[in-house]
Amino acid sequence: MEPSMTGVTYPYMRLDLREYADSLRDEAHQRLVWVSHLPSEKQDNFTDVVHFFYDDTSLASDPGRCVGVFLRDETEAAAVRALTSAIDALFAALGTEQPDDEYLRAPGWQLVVSRAKELVALLDHADASAAAA
């Protein structure tokens, strides 16, 4: 979904967030692209996703700083916080150097997927509401 150009300074960063969150919620994509390395329209991996949340943005450390930049409000920041907390728990259990398939098999992975689904639904709803306004 194309982000509305209103309400955030960098709508294309919001689109990046949406795409990375979508990868985290899509278990079929993860198996095909991240684990089996099959060609796909979207070629990413868990490392790319982690870099976006932890290195390229302040989403993992302080998502509130992204409100107005590419998050619309504190509700979205809270959803990002919930997602990165689930990833943090996974890293606490397994470390940060495992191959993607190890993370996908870990007991905490389903919480990551669930939190990503919640975030995508929230982003989509906010963007649809902004477009309708």
Report on the architecture of this protein:
The chain is mainly alpha-helical and 133 residues long. The chain has one domain (11-132). The protein has helices at 11-25, 27-35, 46-56, 74-94, 100-105, 109-132. The two termini are 16 Å apart. The relative contact order is 0.17.
Biggest β-sheet description: none
Mean pLDDT: 92
> How many helix segments?
6
**Main structural class:** mainly alpha
Q: What percentage of residues falls in helices of 4 or more residues?
A: 55-70%
What percentage of the residues does DSSP assign to strands (E)?
under 5%
Radius of gyration from the alpha-carbon trace, in angstroms: 14 Å
Shape: globular
Q: What count of structural domains?
A: 1
| Residue windows where pLDDT falls under 50 for at least 5 positions | none
- Total beta strand runs: 0
Elements, N to C (H/E)? HHHHHH
How far from one another are the termini? 16 Å
Index terms:
0% strand, 133 residues, mainly alpha
Concise account of the structure shown:
This protein is mostly helical and 133 residues long. It is built from six helices and no strands.
How is this fold's topology laid out?
Blueprint lengths: L10 H15 L1 H9 L10 H11 L17 H21 L5 H6 L3 H24 L1
Helix pairs in contact: 1-3, 1-6, 4-6
